[in-house]
Structures are given as structure tokens and as C-alpha cells.
Amino acid sequence: MTKNKSKLQEYAEAIVIAILIALFIRTFVIQAFKIPSGSMKPTFEIGDHILVNKFICGIKIPFIRNTLIPISEPRRGDIVVFIYPEDRSKDFIKRVIGVSGDTIEIRNKKIYLNGLPYNDPYGIYTDDFIIPGSIQPRDNFGPMTVRPDSVFVMGDNRDQSYDSRFWGLVDLKDVMGKAFIIYWSIAPYDEKDSSLWSRISSVLSRIRWKRFAQLPH
């Protein structure tokens, strides 16, 4: 009886330790995320599954998000996952365009950083129409100066992204980490074809093998 209890206790302890280690890694080191929209195309496609390095943004106290041990801050061009300011139950992923002290302005879809044209190798535009700034800020925005401890972010799919142009800056304490690799990718199934067998049979054809282990730029 004692031996059985001892074995059960060992298994229980091993399970508890494994859970604690997994929670520690997820909270402070690496977390997996799925791309739900096309706002970061072509860098990320809908259905890409990515790993995010949380450690690089420092050790944060869970829930209150205060940084205990700072490591580094996001830089221009980094792709970051953060808590969406307008709904803190959601996580967003965008590219950092401006950091503390930068002045951002957009004129007819062209980004200007601190008064100079911004080198924007990752942004794509799919709509030739220019929306006046008096109607909405997609194509004409600012100027806005990024306040301390915050960043200005945009989706790479500029015409199809809801980002800092619309809802403002992201506090650094809400930045969860930096995206660093795609570990799995599968295209969404066709919702018109709703039968279970059709979904199962299409899985292999929907897997994007070439995107595995890609490092986002």
C-alpha cells in the first residue's frame, strides 16, 4: 500500500512540476499564437501559427503587466504581439513603425517618419483609391508624436489593417513579445463545403508546407 501511494505521489508531483514549467514558459518565455486575419499579409497568412518570444520584452508581472526585469524594447520594423487597447481580451499582431519620440505622418498612403520618407519594404497596398483624412485616417494621418513608453504600429497589409492610425498607440507594458518563427500553417477550409468528410479530406491539400520554419522579416 505504501509503495502504491509512493508511486502515485511521484506521478502527481511529476505532473504538477510539468504543469508549472509549462505555465512558466508560456508566461515568461515563449507563447504560440494563430493568425486570424489578413492584416499582416504577405508576411503572415490567415492560418499561420507562430511562436512569440516573450522573454525579449522583459519579465513582466502577470495581470498588472509591470516590468520586473527589462531586457529590450521593440524597435522599428519588429513584429510584435500586444494586448488590443480597445478590447483587452484580444491579442493583436502588427509591425512597429514608430517608437518613443518619433513623429509619424501619412500623406496619400506614404509614411513619413520625423519629416522624412519612411523606408517601407514590407508594406503593401491593394486599393488605389485615396481616402481623405477628413473622412478616415487610413491614407492620410497625423502628424502624431509617439509618447514615451509606447509604440505606433501598422499591419503590413496597409489598406486592410485596423491599427494605430485608427485607435492610437500601444503601451509598452501591453507588448507581449516579438514574433520569431512560423511553426505550422494551414489554409482555412471553404465554409461552403461544410461536410465533415470534405473537411478531413482537404487537410493535406491545405497545409502550407513551404511556410514551415519561416522567419518573419
What order do the helices and strands come in, and which of them pair?
Blueprint: H1 2-29, E1 30-34, E2 48-53, E3 59-60, E4 67-69, E5 79-83, E6 91-98, E7 103-107, E8 110-113, E9 116-117, E10 141-145, E11 150-154, H2 164-167, E12 170-171, E13 175-185, H3 196-201, H4 203-206
Antiparallel strand pairs: 1-2, 2-13, 3-4, 5-6, 5-13, 6-11, 7-8, 7-10, 8-9, 11-12
Please describe what this structure looks like.
The protein has a single domain (2-211), classed as Umud Fragment, subunit A, CATH 2.10.109. The chain has helices at 2-29, 164-167, 196-201, 203-206; strands at 30-34, 48-53, 59-60, 67-69, 79-83, 91-98, 103-107, 110-113, 116-117, 141-145, 150-154, 170-171, 175-185. It has 4 helices and 13 strands. The protein has a 7-stranded antiparallel sheet. A 4-stranded antiparallel sheet has the order 9-8-7-10, with no helix packed on it. It has a two-stranded antiparallel sheet with strand order 3-4. The relative contact order is 0.18. β3 (59-60) and β4 form a beta hairpin. It has 217 residues and is of the alpha+beta class.
Task: Tell me briefly what this model is.
The protein has 217 residues and is of the alpha+beta class. The chain contains four helices and 13 strands. It has a seven-stranded antiparallel beta sheet with strand order 1-2-13-5-6-11-12. A four-stranded antiparallel beta sheet has the order 9-8-7-10, with no helix packed on it.
